[in-house]
Amino acid sequence: MVKLIQKTALLLIVLMALNCLFLRGTEFYEKKLIVVAPEANVHLDPSSTSPVIDVLKRGSILYLAADRPFRKVWKYIYYTPGYSSITKAGYILADKVRALFKVTKVYTIHGGQPQPVIMQEQKGHFRRILWGMSPEEVVALEGEPLYQEEKEEVRRLDFASTFGGIHGLLSYYFVNDQLVAAQFAVRTLPSKKTTWMSLYSVLKEVLDHDFGQAQEEGNISASQRKSFSGLKGLPQNLCLESKWESEETQVLLRFIRDGQDVSLEIRAQGRPELGLAQKELASLLFEQGKF
Prior knowledge:
By secondary structure, the protein is of the alpha+beta class.
């Protein structure tokens, strides 16, 4: 009888250890999601008639709270919104988000006969890309996109990426299969210890390194950085911008708070002198903020 109890206890210990290993294995992917739709409602219950507790913008990073979808189309998620330090939870439609995980790089472009594409680690017009690249060439650099959309002759490819160590949504815009613009968007803070002003400073430092000192810049003084350290210290309406120009690229770094709508983004586009396809349309998208 004693031996049976000992065997049972040992079996339980083994099962618990295996369960812990399984859970740690799933945590390797961090169960992160990113919003790819322009907007995504977070509902109190898994139903479109349920009260909406929040509206998240494209690029918001969430965490999956349950592995199995509810009613096949809903995901139970939690997140810390950009306008608050309080963690929220709710249900979101599965087609509004994509899983965030490391993707396998694609180095072969297929167009008629398979042609190997050799991508070297080199400095481009923006990050590693060159304006005028085709979607296939960008995919060879970035891997498979999380999401893609074509509207009004503009094709957009979305990728999960980092800029200066900051996670966000990287989008590339093509006109006539030529890369004309890019955007890196951060909609949620990575941790409660991080502030929007510290993220802005990091991105600005990276852009200063790549493009030199900004021609127009919104500097943050030490006293402002201290007063803006928490979200409560930020004015309800705040717009902070810095701009760079090189021979090939125009870049805008922008932080905006409009009430509860908070966003930090980098926008870049090829200069008209490069002769990009339909450059007037690309400039219109850039200037009017229709990214």
